[in-house]
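Render this sequence as a predicted structure.
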Amino acid sequence: MSTTVDRAQIEALVRSAIRQAQSGSSQPSPSAPVLSGAPGGEPLGWVNGKPNLRVSISARHCHLTDEHVEILFGRGSVLEPDKDLYQDGFYAAKQTVMVVGPRRRMLPNVRVLGPTRPASQLELAFTDSISLGIDAPVRHSGKIEGTPGCVLVGPAGSVQLDQGVIRAARHVHMNDHDAAFYGVSNGDMMQLVIKSKDCSVIFDDVLVREDKAAKLEVHIDTDEGNACNLDAATEVTIQPMPKPCACGH
């Protein structure tokens, strides 16, 4: 599936809105309180001998290829780190793009995350996709086959994506020590329990993404974070998905 927008319309949008589009901020922001740093000798991200769970709200953002960075921001351009993310080696870039969907609906100031990737991808929450006018499916990052496209607009040019617009499925990054602690493996599903006054929520189907360099961190989108009032959460825990009982329920 693809979204086609006339190039003249794109240029008109650039002239009328590009300054505004490049002046804001829309980067993922950590939302749950978390202790910092692990003493020497402990597994990565651990505190006092145990995994240190962090739950972060991942706001709408996009990942770009090297080629698309140059098209959008000018020949020879590279992503410029602005703020390091919790996972080592990943960052919110200084650059933002405007996203154009069907019927000229727009989302300005969508943050680019680095480093670059083999395929460009736009990650939205459900309300973002409604605003943009795109029926974005829930997918895990990188699984973009058959997804809708959009137009990305930068200060130097525009890129039409034939696919790559998704609602990112919730997931948890962890290393092998975290996985052993919880008794899970890469690709398993876990359950995130968030206790918050008057709106506690249990999120099922949290995909385990295991990597030796990862620190324990759950990513949920802005809609999910708002639903459980994550900023005011009093307790966050994660556990393997409960197994069905012998009766089949």
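Summary. The first helix runs from residue 7 to 21. Helices lie at 7-21, 66-73, 126-132, 176-182, 222-227.
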